[in-house]
Request: fold
Amino acid sequence: MNKFSRDFVFGTGTSAYQIEGAAFEDGKTASIWDTYCSISGNVFRDQSGDIACEHYYRYKEDVQLLKNLGVDSYRFSVSWPRIFPERGEVNKKGIKFYVDLVDELIRNNIKPMVTLYHWDLPQWAYDLGGWLNRDIAVWFEEYARVMFEALGEKVTLWATHNEPFCVSILGYLKGLHAPGHKDLKEALTASHNIFLSHGAAVKAFRSFNFKDSKIGITLNLSPGYPLEQTSENIELAKRADGFVDRWFMDPLFKGSYPVDMVKIYESKIGKLDFIKTGDLEIITEPMDFLGVNFYARNMVKPSQEGLLGYVGVGEKMPQTQEEWDTYPEILFKLLMNIKNEYTSLPIYITENGLALEGYKDDAGDDEKFGTIITSANDIDFVAEDGRVHDEARILYVYNCLKQCLKFIESGGELRGYYLWSLMDNFEWALGYSKRFGITYVNFETQERIIKDSGYWYKKVIESRTLQPKL
Ligand code: IFM
Reply:
């Protein structure tokens, strides 16, 4: 089979903090990312999402871009502090922005997919304990209800959260994302409270009795692989899988945390006493779909330098400019594993894409955030013909989409694919040094230029067939 059906959903995605800009407009208050970016040294060249792609002002132009690309659906997120600038205080202007955006999408025949939480926690919520305070499930439910009320069934797909792994592990254990903490117990507490808030929001959603709208969650999954086929390596790969994937899949679909990981974590931080009786029932509130974000696999080798006895290795594999071990073939196995081990729910690939270097200058020299530019093809830039020739991105996405077709052919319920990202944007701690877009953004002028990958994707969507080149 080499053809996607007409009802397969092709889309692209973005998130609020990464594209909107207008950081303090129309009543919006700070999120933890505004605060994190304001501290020198946290982000590449001390950049921020203050202006980003100015999507808040240019959303109509961006909807035309989506229309031009021919996508069926657009995935974006809502900025919680735009809606609730303070605890218990709803901001009508913030709601209006998303109502206008959704209406504009629908007028242009594009189905909206909305993520409620894509990392920009209101600063007020952080000041009250953030994801470490169980009460956050109540605040999140309150916020979710306001959005369900405002947008309701105009939104085809709702996702409660994007990548709880990143929020908890990168934000609370590794100190790489806001709020920049480094504490294992905090990270596990945060992930648990994220799940509680997810369950509460799904339950609230059901009370609206929407007929044409579905709800789920988006997880980033990155299967663990041993560098060598020794029993030690294999055991550690299982552990890596437990750390990144199973810790997040098991509670949602099996109603329990993986026993091997509980044992390891308890040996480090004592009883996981933040898990209370009845919590897993809240967390397993039935959903309608699973969103999977896939970028790379997680190949490991033993090392005492790693918290769990291993470190990740990617050197031998083709890499993106994020230094990720991209390996499209793994996507099929990952999807089959979800189907066989976890759930028969419909799956959407809610993110997949490739980062290329964002600067032609000496960005690669940056000590903390830079990577080494290896060839001209690894940089996204506007060539003399006015185009952006990003063949590497086309090839990567082509290979991933082939894996999607293979899964569908094997009876898998894959309903859609959202390419990350609609346009170049603020790549968190890496600032603007990496570009993920299928549209190039000139951050000086805000000009948008569809890249070759964008034209290629348009052809795929129109024809429903795959070609490795434009
Ligand atoms: O840009 C991010 C996105 O916000 C979440 N998933 C991974 C992307 C690339 O790093």
Q: What stands out?
A: DSSP finds 15 helices and 15 strands in the chain. The two ends are 20 Å apart (CA to CA). The chain has one domain: 9-463. The chain has a mean pLDDT of 94.
